[in-house]
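Supplementary Methods, section 5.1.

A reviewer requested that the exact input to the structure prediction be made available. We therefore reproduce it here, unchanged from the version used in the analyses.
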Amino acid sequence: MLRYYLILWNFTDKVKSQHKTFFFTIKNQYLCKINGKVMQDRLISRNRECEELQRCLDSDRSEFVIVSGRRRIGKTYLIDKFFNYKYDFTFVGEHKTPAKIQLQDFMRAIERHSKKKQPKVANWYEAFNALADYLEKLPSKRKKVVFIDEMPWMDTQRSNFVSALENFWNGWGNRRTDIVFIATGSATSWMADKIGGNQGGLHARITCNLHLSPFTLHETEEYLRQRNCQWDRYQILQCYMIFGGTPFYLSLLNVSDSLAQNIDRLIFAEGAQLRGEFDELYTALFAKADTYISVVRLLSENKLGLTREDILRMTGIEGAFLSKILRNLERCDFITRLSHYGNKTRDSLFRLTDFFTLFYYKFIEPNNTKDGLWWSNNLDSRSVSAWMGLSFELVCLNHHRQIKTALGIAGVGTAISTWRSKADKGDGIPGFQIDMIIERADRIIHLCEMKFSTDLYGITTSYEMKLRERMGLFRMATKNKKTLVNTFVTTYGVANAKNKSIVHSEVTMDDLFNS
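The structure derived from this sequence is encoded token-by-token as follows.
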């Protein structure tokens, strides 16, 4: 099959031009390794996104595509790879740059693409008119691809950028059939509110809305294997607990070294590349970043999660603004909203689930030593062990689909939730929490226990009794008559001992790596 595609790719430029969209997909998916030599990086995952981009190229109308996702997630990389860096026009917004300078740079970009001198413009209306004039002179029998990267940074104060964009698309682009207009932005809230949720001229004009999420464990492993990484899954899992599935962070790893060596080099060594990443990350994403960081810090100090009312009371942030902050943090995959069992929306728990942020607050911010090998020297410490246990719980929460598949219930209707009960001094009932509950449509409820271990996990007699007591408390508190079972999610499985009878079903680390 690969040979067939290579033969096709050797056709003349004229043939390739006539079948441009077809060859985009072929080149990106298949021309990654020839005669043992890597010709270009292969896109990992993002299959759905590529299919949508292909649909936009093949459609009989103009398409307005927005691609959102947190910083470092690979938005630009996806578009560049899919289109093989071939654009009829492309421009990158500039962070904290006045509109006057950005307008000059925008016109210079038109000049480079058109090879014609462009006039000076006074505002974005004139700039977009110049872009339309240039695009109209291109061949009419193919789609013209326009790529605007980091669009939110172009919307400076009093620039009227959004209004001008609305005028450009409604008055010109949307009335044609040959434009694919792609906009990306790390400021996910801006993309969602100003473009995706626009109630003005762009209302209902977006034809394709793509959100890039972090890689799963499966995708992370696939990415690292493509780079000839020989780490075992235990090391890859630990890597995920620090860097999450953020492609940029993964790209910085030297796979010839151990994970510990990489962490020291990237984070703890003098001048380490990711030492200042936290501040850059939130400042680039959010206006009033300090307020966002105050919420994130609070959640980092409350590992079990907080309700909106908890956060409101503990921060004093005005209600509407707090709702916006939580919504934006959730859009950027920094926090996760977990439904409270029983579908009490007001009792939903917000948990900080961005692995790098959690690692920052645990080990980077409080670390004032000059020890460039700090991680290697503290691998066996209690604080690192405790952090691994918490991080593994979050990995499991992020991979609940893989857990369902391992349990053989992927096709069964389920609801994922959590439970937190405060101690009742009047009744003498102790408080307890269940981090993940999988409720099945066939009236079976999995109470999930997530345990990180370097070997088989052993259940002690006292722990077995605690689990049995928790099942009884949960049944009493929820008045539940459904079948309750204990499911253990561990790295290597549960040791086969007398206390294992409490375990109904098991999921291991390998199951979490499934696609």
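The chain has 23 helices and 14 strands. These observations are discussed further in the main text.
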